[in-house]
């Protein structure tokens, strides 16, 4: 018979038989296997290279529409004519040991290196090897949505909903990679509940908190990085991988290349006197262009150093990225216009977005320098006032 959606839906196995095979007149070899219980599966029947009759299934009728099944059958039969044996390949794939979740984590990390920022790589390692360690022994194809939900519930209970949100995002990216590599057929994170609504951070350090953090910074790489973050409003990874070749100290300018900026736009950061004083104390390491850290991608170990800084400063509940928001808020409170603050932060939004951004190509170099000089002077004044209060 010539298959139509209606004719296939009406097919039944003859009385007394466990199943029946019905083939399509329009596509020889393409058929439906109807069981006695009423289930229907698309099948393809062909002869292998030795002339032996073979049959393989494509999927359930209720899941795979007729046009898609017919196209799949034609593709499979074309492969047979080229010498392939789809059934044998399926059996070999089934017999092949399935890699476990834990075995695939190092491969994913290696894939992600060079594509993700170092901070994101570190977070992926922590979540996949820590929060999701319970999945390591499980074959990747056997990780189901219920397993994901169980893991996220445990993370929420132990570390809070926002931590679970971040872990869920890492896990989803990991499974998206496995699907893209042909290792898994689906992403079990898809459709799982988000532990908590995404919440934008609004933390801005108060003047006393900013002074406490500044004074708690030690004379080491991490302390210098934190103070530069306060003075420049730059992103953590931008300062962590700062290179001597990006600095023009006589011109008091740091040129961040587009390859290292979040929006892939080169960005000139005017350096205040306070920032230059910090850079003047950074020791030069022979043969190394990067100012901080010893690794190829700059400084690492933020979590440990940040925890010690919190203890020394007695300021908690903040992140290094909050320093960027604090600098932006502080400049605004000093009367710096919004479009200049955006230029300092290398934001392409607000006054610099859309059509306005296309026609307004001004770099605001003088305004940025004035803004950062004013902000640095304000931070230094706060620190001096803090010393007087404790004298």
TrEMBL record:
Gene3D superfamilies noted in UniProt? 1.10.150.130, Integrase, DNA-binding domain (3.30.160.390), Intergrase catalytic core (1.10.443.10)
Q: Where is the Core-binding (CB) domain?
A: 99-179
Where do transmembrane segments lie in this chain?
A: none
- State the similarity comment: Belongs to the 'phage' integrase family.
Q: Which InterPro entries match?
A: CB (IPR044068), DNA_brk_join_enz (IPR011010), Integrase-like_cat_sf (IPR013762), Integrase_catalytic (IPR002104), Integrase_DNA-bd_sf (IPR038488), Integrase_DNA_bind_dom (IPR025166), Integrase_recombinase_N (IPR010998), Phage_int_M (IPR053876)
Q: Which UniProt keywords apply?
A: DNA integration, DNA recombination, DNA-binding
Domain of life of the organism encoding this protein: Bacteria
Tyr recombinase domain location is 200-373
The record's listing under CDD domains reads: INT_P4_C
- Give the matching PROSITE patterns: CB, TYR_RECOMBINASE
Q: What is this protein called?
A: Tyr recombinase domain-containing protein
């Amino acid at each position: 018979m010539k298959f139509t959606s209606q004719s296939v839906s009406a097919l039944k196995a003859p009385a007394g038989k466990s199943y029946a095979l019905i083939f399509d007149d329009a596509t020889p070899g393409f058929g439906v296997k109807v069981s006695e219980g009423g289930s229907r599966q698309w099948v393809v029947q062909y002869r292998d290279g030795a002339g032996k009759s073979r049959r393989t299934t494509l999927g359930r009728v209720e899941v795979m529409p007729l046009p898609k099944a017919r196209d799949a059958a034609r593709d499979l039969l074309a492969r047979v004519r080229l010498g392939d044996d789809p059934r044998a390949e399926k059996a070999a794939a089934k017999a092949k040991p399935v890699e476990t979740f834990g075995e695939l984590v190092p491969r994913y990390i290696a894939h992600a290196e060079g594509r993700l920022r170092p901070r994101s790589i570190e977070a992926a390692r922590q979540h996949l090897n820590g929060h999701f360690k319970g999945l390591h022994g499980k074959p990747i194809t056997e990780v189901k949505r219920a397993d994901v939900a169980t893991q996220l519930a445990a993370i929420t209970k132990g570390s809070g909903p926002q931590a679970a949100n971040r872990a869920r995002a890492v896990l989803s990216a990991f499974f998206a990679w496995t699907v893209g590599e042909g290792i898994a057929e689906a992403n079990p994170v898809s459709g799982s509940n988000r532990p908590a609504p995404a919440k934008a951070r609004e933390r801005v350090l108060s003047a006393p908190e900013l002074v406490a953090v500044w004074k708690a910074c030690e004379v080491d790489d991490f302390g210098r990085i934190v103070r530069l973050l306060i003075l420049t409003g730059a992103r953590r990874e931008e300062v962590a991988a700062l290179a001597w070749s990006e600095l023009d100290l006589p011109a008091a300018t740091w040129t961040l290349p587009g390859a290292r900026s979040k929006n892939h736009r080169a960005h000139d950061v005017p350096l205040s006197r306070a920032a230059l004083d910090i850079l003047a104390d950074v020791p030069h390491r022979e043969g190394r262009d990067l100012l901080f850290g010893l690794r190829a991608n700059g400084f690492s170990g933020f979590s440990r150093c940040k925890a010690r800084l919190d203890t020394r400063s007695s300021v908690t509940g903040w992140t290094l990225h909050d320093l960027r928001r604090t600098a932006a808020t502080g400049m605004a409170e000093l009367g710096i216009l919004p479009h200049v603050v955006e230029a300092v932060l290398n934001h392409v939004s607000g006054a610099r977005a859309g059509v306005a951004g296309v026609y307004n190509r001004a770099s605001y170099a003088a305004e940025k320098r004035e803004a950062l000089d004013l902000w640095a002077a304000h931070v230094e004044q706060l620190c001096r006032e803090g010393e007087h209060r404790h004298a």
